[in-house]
Amino acid sequence: MDDPATRVPGQLLPHMHLVSRHRFPLMHMMPTDTVVEYLLGAPKIVREAQPMHWTFLDGPQDGTVMLTWQPLNHLGTNFASDGYVWADVEQAFTFEARGYVGRPDL
Amino acid sequence: MPPPDPSLWIVHYSRAPPTEHIPANRIHVLPQVQSMLGQRRFLQSQGQLARKDFMLHDRNNWPTINFPPQVAPQGFAQVPPAYPSAMVGRQPFYPQPGSGVPAPAGGAPAKAPRGHRASSAAVNAATADFALEDEDVSAGDMMDLLTPREVSKMRYQQHHEWMEEIFASPYAISQITPVSLGLGRKGELESLTAGFFDAPSGPTSGESKDAADSAQATKMEPAKAEEFADRVAKKVADMTAEIEKLKKRHARRMEKFNRTSLLKDAELRLREAAADPNATGTEIWRLEGRIEIPSEGDETQTPPASEPKAKYRVDDVVKELETSWKKQIVPEPKVSCVQKGGLLEKIEPEQKLEAPADGDIDMGHADSHLLDQFGSPPPSGPVQGSAPIAQELAAPAHVPGVSEVPGINAPAPLQTTAAVPQQSVTMSGMDVEMDMGNAPPANTAAGETGDWVMVNDEKKDQGDKPAVGDAPLHGIETPGSGLQGLTPGNTGGDTGLDGANFDFTNMDSAGDALAAYTEQNEVLDLPDLENSAFGDAFHASDNENTHHHDADDMA
Fold it and tell me: How far is CA B359 from each of CA A29, A34, B348, B431, B435, rounded to the nearest angstrom?
């Protein structure tokens, strides 16, 4: 299956993010409801509203919210490097909202 | 609600709660993280990634990003194992750079301005433009990476290396021959250097001449150098002479040019010139400097017209031109006779003097009137058609008419006048022509009935038209038209008009008409008319005249 990540060299993929042009407001706390809302609207955004682009992330500032496309076929759920050194291991939890099950990584 | 796309993630960065804050020095940096950071550093050193937007599902526009070609990054080989868990069931991994779908139309994305490459603190945009295939100027060239100090240092070293080639050489300077300096010339200066220096030659002969070249790259003999200097001096002299020549030619050309413009100048000045700019007067003919005299009663006396005074004297302008052109200025007549042509000279003025002496009416005057007023059309018609007196004159009057017939189409007065005298000479012998003086009344008649002339003009063959009895006007025309029959013989000017040989037989109707002339003869009291050869003709006109009278009566 073809996806945008096939056009990017494998060596670069762990460092690059396909980010939507859609701008979300900067917020320091994000309730899960908002996340669900954003996620539900995401397909529409990428399909109709806003283009995507490959880019580097270099330590985004606190409060940044963005919509990205994760190359699941290539990296799985591993998030490409964003300029931060993560001190601890990944934490995950699940929650349920509106019939969906979310599994945010922390 | 569309099905959720698991590939779409919402990413949110936020500060961890204070309880989970970890001091930076206690963070254990794994080797994987180390290599990841190294790779990032490398990629960032390649410059920015040009941003290309595309819709996620528009696969035709998915950009292809190429790995920087000039590098074989050391740390990249072991990257893939860093994500072992993610490799499950995925597509062929790591496609070869460049083997994928060709880059989208437009090739390399627009080069982003390179700027803060060193400080890659920018949030989103710091990556290499890997799609560039030409020289990677977006990342800058070598000179961008050099500090001015480094540049100066390298230059210093270079210069010293060059100097060392000489000073550290085991050969004395006198022993060192420079390479060929390329003093030879082709083209214009080839003649100058031929024999002394080798001109650069094309690649065709280059091979064979290489040996010779190296042999000739030697020092020049002093004598030869002197010879060369001489040749150069000569060449320079020649060129200087040529320059002088060209300059002279140019000067001549400019002088000519200026003289022409002088003409134009003078012409412009003539427009404002007067014969005597200062002369003034009240004469009406004065174009300039005229003083208006207010007419009496003209109370609203206008001040003298403020027309500009002539600035130049005509004589001055003329003189100036004459001196500058060294030529005489003469007035040019509007008409100048190039060649006199075959026409006979006009001797009429004497006739004019004689005729009045013979008769009581100024024939010359009549002639002039006829000629002036009628020009080309034969005046005979009007003459006959008018007053009774003119009737007797029909024949004499016809004669000028006849003479003028050739001139119908050529109204130049010269022709008619040239022909007239000869006829009048003929007539003078017959004492008839003096009565031509009656032509002036005829003229008036012609003025009344101008269309007669026209009829005469267009119809030459009207002689056979029933002169008598028809429309009165026609009868009047006939003599004229009959006389026109004479024209062929008359064109020569002297053939048919010779005195008694004057042949009127051609005018049939006119002759008939003239037969009745005598009826009015007494009234006219013309002397010796019966003796004249024109008697019959007069009768004819008389006859016609009667009809004319009828016509008048009728009118």
Answer: 144, 141, 17, 8, 7
Cα–Cα dist A6/A18, whole Å: 12
Interface residue of A2, A11, A105 to substitute, partner B, most B CBs within 10 Å: A11
The answer to whether the CB of B139 falls within 8 A of the CB of B46 is yes
Between the alpha carbon of residue B345 and those of residues B33, B77, B335, B414, B426, the distances in Å are: 130, 125, 18, 9, 18
Contact B127 A56 (CB under 8 A): yes
d(CA B277, CA B313): 6
- For residue B275, the number of C-alpha atoms closer than 13 Å in the C-beta half-sphere is 4
- In this predicted structure, which of A11-20, A60-69, B210-219, B324-333 has the lowest mean pLDDT? B210-219
Please say whether the beta carbons of B439 and B393 come within 8 A: yes
Q: Which residue has the higher pLDDT, A29 or B372?
A: A29
Looking at residue B140, what DSSP letter applies? -
Q: Which residue of A has its CA nearest to B89?
A: A73
Q: Is the pTM of this model over 0.90?
A: no
Counting Cβ atoms within 10 Å, is residue B174 exposed (0-12), middle (13-18) or buried (19+)?
exposed
A84: nearest CA in chain B?
A: B37
Q: Lowest mean pLDDT: which of A74-78, B64-68, B297-301?
A: B297-301
pLDDT digits (tens, 9 = 90+) for B252-302: 999 989 888 888 888 888 888 777 767 767 777 776 666 666 655 545 545
Cβ of A56 and B51 within 8 Å?
no
Backbone torsion region of residue B182, taken as left when φ is above 0, otherwise alpha when ψ lies between -120 and 50, otherwise beta: left
Is the per-residue pLDDT at B544 higher than 70?
no
* A96 beta partners: A101
